Amino acid sequence: MKTENLRNLMNSGKMVKVMGAHNGLSAKLAENAGFDAIWASGFEIAATHVVPDANILTMTENLNVAHSINKSVSVPVICDCDSGYGDINNIAHMIKEYESMGISGVCIEDKPFPKLNSFLGEGQKLEDIEVFSEKIRVAQETKKNKNMVVIARIEAFIAGQGLSEVLKRAYAYKEAGADALLIHSKKEDVSEIYEFCNSFNENLPIVVVPTTYPNINLEILKAHGVRLVIYANHGIRSSVNAMKETFENIIKNGNTTNVEGTISSMEEIFRLQGTGKLRKPSYNLQK
Ligand code: SPV
Ligand code: MG
After folding, report:
1. pTM score, two decimals?
2. Which ligand is nearest to the CA of 212?
3. Domain extent listing, the chain
């Protein structure tokens, strides 16, 4: 059902707004704020384990978090599956596992295993086009639910390549059966995305992650064929700042008086936990 929702959203013509999350609570807050879907972010999940976003965590560790996220929200969840945790056999296993957990979409990027976060260092290595195309084909052949979305993520701009390499990959991955293309860019403006959209002559939903180019206009992006926008890391970045300030303030003052006005109330957390839905037993045992 959620999977069908994601596919319908993607084809609805409206911009699908997706927020990154790293656990059930952050996903719930995103849903409550009005986001259409959740991005189970590899970067955020790695950060919450205090390890680099470099395939240090296993597929199962990421999947466990994604499962917890999926159970916490009613909107669809798209999982960041890095480069698919290995070769085509790892991809087939991954799709079976993610599908069995009710995950609505997976995103696989065209970098070799182990991947490195796109914003780390220059000269990132790209996977061979044929190797990656086969990963997409195998992902599509493996899934049982035809609505499950497989997003092919193109890292050629990230690796410092030009438009022709990005286009070559985009046509190859479309041919291999990708349901959508994530065009990643680390430029400080949206120019590479528009450059791609203006040259790509296929009707396939485009996904963007505006981390380094925050100043986007959703209407203009939509007019260029962008259908999903993923705000990939703003949850973890806002919570780290908030916790740092609170913790430092408490260490300095030895009490929590100064922070009580800025932190959430216990009642708000009780609400988020669904405490009000706890059942009262019908029996009344007298001691
Ligand atoms: C993530 O959120 O883990 C992503 C997006 O893959 S990025 O950090 O931009 O690579
Ligand atoms: Mg990632």
Report:
1. 0.97
2. 1
3. 2-232, 240-277
